[in-house]
Design a protein that fits this description.
Layout lengths: L3 E3 L7 H11 L12 E4 L3 H4 L1 E3 L3 E4 L1 H8 L5 H9 L2 H5 L5 E2 L6 E6 L2 E6 L5 E8 L2 E9 L2 E9 L5 E6 L2 E4 L5 E5 L2 E7 L2 E9 L3 E11 L2 E6 L2 E4 L4 E3 L3 E3 L3 E5 L8 E5 L10 H16 L2
Parallel strand pairs: 6-16, 7-20, 8-21, 21-22
Antiparallel strand pairs: 1-3, 2-4, 5-12, 6-7, 8-9, 9-10, 10-11, 11-12, 13-14, 14-15, 15-16, 16-17, 17-18, 18-19
Length: about 290
């Protein structure tokens, strides 16, 4: 859908920003970098309008090169027609800057911390059927973050592998603004919201972790497994290899909560969400 707005403000309306991100593969059209700026290919000062097909995404380097005349407008226009990330089907890897001998992961008001014990340390806050959805490795002063987000068909749509961020361009919307990465399944439907706090903290305030029919919802104050209405809030695990361990693991993982026989998701979350609401009301009454 083509959206156009004539105005005297340089602020691009949010629906137009989203349309541009989707069309450009959520990254610089030239190099795929997920840190980008919106660039009017037709000079805004001349046209005084925000039209989606006249706006593209450029990383800071390529934006400065275009502004300085080192990057011809024709090359930008060509790249806009065939963006880097859409050609590859996945984003260019982006390195996250994590380091140190301790790590803290906060997930829905629950925290997981660990310290490097000198021979390399691993921590798995969430794992389903032997697949770590969130993992941390500490070794020799290095902190390596690993996260994988699947869709309902078990297809990975976002992957952080040893601090390198990749994402599928088939996702509805992805934004990396400042230190916050937001992935949306649809309008106003957040699949993941994660704040990177280098050098050693990660905060996941919202999320929907899916794997093999298991659904784990992360809200700012709790984690809810909708399959069996398990609600976790205010839990803390320190130097514990496993956190929330769901399903069968060929090599058993010790954790603060292991749920083996979890019924698989059948599509109706009504009772689980009702239970969550009632449980949170009880928690508030006792505080």
């Amino acid at each position: 859908m083509e959206i156009e707005q004539e105005c005297n403000s340089r602020n691009i309306p949010l629906p137009i920003q989203r349309e541009v991100r989707q069309r450009c593969g959520f990254g610089c059209v030239i190099c795929g970098m997920p840190l980008y700026e919106y660039e009017h290919m037709a000079e805004w000062a001349k046209v005084k309008r925000h039209q989606a097909d006249e706006i593209t995404l450029l990383c800071d380097q390529h934006h400065r090169e275009k502004t300085g005349g080192l990057l011809p407008k024709e090359i930008v226009s060509q790249a806009n027609l065939n963006p880097y990330n859409l050609r590859e089907g996945v984003s260019k890897p982006y390195n996250l800057h994590f380091s140190g001998k301790e790590a803290k992961v906060e997930i829905g008001g629950n925290s997981f911390t660990c310290f490097d014990k000198g021979y390399g340390t691993a921590m798995v806050p969430i794992s389903v059927d032997g697949t770590p959805l969130i993992g941390i490795i500490l070794a020799d002063g290095h902190l390596l973050l690993n996260i994988v987000i699947f869709d309902e068909f078990n297809q990975p749509i976002l992957h952080i592998k040893n601090n390198q961020l990749y994402y599928s361009t088939s996702t509805w919307d992805i934004q990396l603004v400042g230190t916050t990465l937001t992935v949306r399944e649809a309008h106003r439907k957040i699949l993941l919201e994660i704040e990177f706090q280098p050098p050693s903290n990660i905060v996941i305030s919202r999320g929907r972790f899916l794997k093999n029919g298991v659904e784990i919802l992360v809200r700012p104050t709790n984690i809810l497994i909708t399959n069996n209405s398990t609600l976790l809030s205010g839990c803390h695990a320190n130097n514990c290899y496993g956190g929330l361990i769901v399903g069968y693991h060929e090599n058993p993982i010790g954790g603060f909560m292991a749920l083996g026989g979890v019924p698989r998701y059948l599509g109706n979350r009504k009772e689980a969400l009702k239970f969550e609401k009632e449980s949170l009301s009880l928690i508030e009454e006792h505080h």
